Amino acid sequence: MQYNDPLDFILYLLLEERFQTSMVNFSLSEDDLRQILVHPLQMVSTDSILLGKPHPRAYGTYPRILGHYVREEKLLPLEHAIRKMTSGPAQRLGLRDRGTLREGAWADIVIFDPAHIEDRATYQNPVQYPRGIDYVLVNGVPTVVKGELQSGRAGQILRCTSECEEYTSINSRLNRRTIRNGSR
After folding, report:
1. Are 147 and 111 in contact (CB under 8 A)?
2. How many CB atoms lie within 10 A of CB 66?
3. Cα–Cα distances in Å, from 53 out to 65, 84, 147?
4. Backbone angles phi, psi at 88, to 5 degrees
5. Does residue 143 or residue 152 have the better pLDDT?
6. Which of 128, 114, 104 lies closest to 54 in space, CA to CA?
7. H-assigned helices in 65-132
8. I want to staple 111 with a disulfide (CB 3.0 to 4.6 A). Which of 1, 80, 104, 135 is the partner?
9. Are 106 and 68 in contact (CB under 8 A)?
10. How far apart are CA 15 and CA 8, in angstroms?
């Protein structure tokens, strides 16, 4: 089939794939990524969506940083990477009862082997669990045991705090200013 109108093709693709369509965009070089990763204010996150054939980062972001950039490249110390993934984002977003191991905090814990953690997700086969993660507790409930995903779901929606709203408001204003100035 040939489509003269791009919108017709997009609609066809969405229907054909039952709305499980996603996109992979290559916009950062490895050098850019390394420079960003070591910046003291950088926090690790992923915006991947688990629909259709997701971006490999959906399954591999955190293991890639811990295995490749920390262990193999020694780009940053393990404790700095862990902070960028846990207490750093929790503090920035005002999630006072998350991100640290202490009494009274929610037990969101990942037990992994630093010598063996490895992302396995690829662009061809992105739905692959990483190696080296033995246990995951979400809100104190085991969700991965001996590397095997358990059936229960213990997660919950986290609501934005006033610190989070202030942070997102500032970022939104900065993004609008960047777009208006033609820098983006």
Report:
1. no
2. 26
3. 22, 27, 23
4. -60, -60
5. 143
6. 128
7. 78-85, 87-92
8. 135
9. no
10. 11
- 133 and 63 Cβ atoms separated by less than 8 Å: yes
The length of the chain is 184
Q: Which two tokens stand for residue 81?
A: 């990477």
Burial label for 146, CB within 10 Å (0-12, 13-18, 19+), is: exposed
Which among 127, 128, 45 has a CA at the least distance from the CA of 93? 45
**H-helix or E-strand containing 66?**
none
Asked whether residue 136 carries a pLDDT value surpassing 60, the answer given is: yes
| Continuous H helices in 4-112 | 6-16, 30-38, 57-64, 78-85, 87-92
Amino acid at residue number 84: K
Render pLDDT for 57-90 as a digit per residue (tens, 0 to 9). 999 999 999 999 999 999 999 999 999 999 999 9
Pairing of strands 109-112, 148-149: unpaired
User: Do 117 and 104 form a contact (C-beta atoms < 8 A)?
Assistant: no
| Tokens encoding 17 | 């794939």
First-to-last C-alpha distance (Å) of the chain: 36
